[in-house]
Known about the structure:
This protein is of the alpha/beta class. The protein contains 4 helices and 20 strands. It has helices at 68-73, 84-92, 183-193, 223-232, and strands spanning 2-5, 11-15, 18-22, 30-31, 40-43, 55-58, 80-82, 98-100, 106-109, 113-122, 128-136, 142-145, 163-166, 170-173, 177-180, 197-200, 207-210, 218-220, 238-239, 248-249. A hairpin with a 3-residue loop joins strand 9 (106-109) and strand 10 (113-122).
Amino acid sequence: MHLTWLDSNSWLIEIAGKRILLDPWLVEPLMFGNAAWFFKSERRTARQIPENIDLILLSQGLEDHAHPPTLKHLDHQIPVVGSPSAAKLVRELGYTEVTALAHGEIFKIPNLLEIRAVTGSPTGPTTIENGYILKDLIEGTSLYYEPHGYHTESLKEFAPIDVAITPTVDLKLPLIGTVIKGQQGAVKLAKWLQPKVILPTAAGGDLDYSGFLLKFLKAEGTIDSLRSLFAANDISTEIIEPQPWERFEVNLPKLAPRA
């Protein structure tokens, strides 16, 4: 399994011989509703868009997970798997092969890969988006992703998971509370899934931020404080801090495929 963190929530996952773009933001600034005054994130360094993509995987329909300029730029023939809100967006953009997954539903590439949608983050009064479990049917290894730290207890039935991509820092807003559950969310997840490796997501990376929202966002916790929490809870999971846009291999023992 090879992973490349593409800043923010975006990843290139190479698993079961497939190249998967997860929640890609690759071109133009990131904004919500084109309101640069409210929030804007820009890349410090120009980057080359990954090539030979087999699948786009979207956890949410919001701009920081289903980034419209990026999705307009990418080849609309690439298959897309996403939450219902994300699937609706890419269909409207003209993508030709789109699969919407409700919680508990599975997308399969026969004999290679299985992607299971699990309960993810609430993004509105009636919308709960997706997390995912990816299972390599050749190597028997697995990866879990949820970008806001909302981990459902039903995940226990899928333990153990080899790799977890999850926030490791809390992000809070006045009156609203914690919008990204990093520290305690990661501890809970590590106890439930017993991953060999945890990788942080939803962090800054090689980015600059501006806008009104920044006055109110409060980040709490660090990788070191999370390591201390793991030690206090007798959790042996390794925390790896990826560098933006640097491909690396997660070395895991080859296992018999799991049923």
